[in-house]
Amino acid sequence: MTTKPLPPDTPSTTVKVEVLPPLLLTEEEAAMYTGTSTSWLRNQRSKDSKLIAQGYMPEGPPWVRMRTWIRYRPEDVVQWIEDNLMEMAKSERPHQPHLKRKSKK
User: What percent of the chain has pLDDT over 70?
Assistant: First the structure.
């Protein structure tokens, strides 16, 4: 919350102005936030639509369709990033000798 003083010719009071984050992100904003491109998001939505139709879980960030607009809720994008961090962390673990590696032929 930001406190903003009034001009000097007004009585000595302050007004509290609350700055709200955007409720929905555009496709471009979601791409910037996730470090992807808008074309990647479009392709992922297309793949996810097919997965959902087949009864599978989608793999990309959840989206909202409003008429012809596509939007993303910031909390969904953050959750999608956090969910995927766990998968990356598992695959990037240091070598663990008790795990077998595929043999190179």
Answer: 65
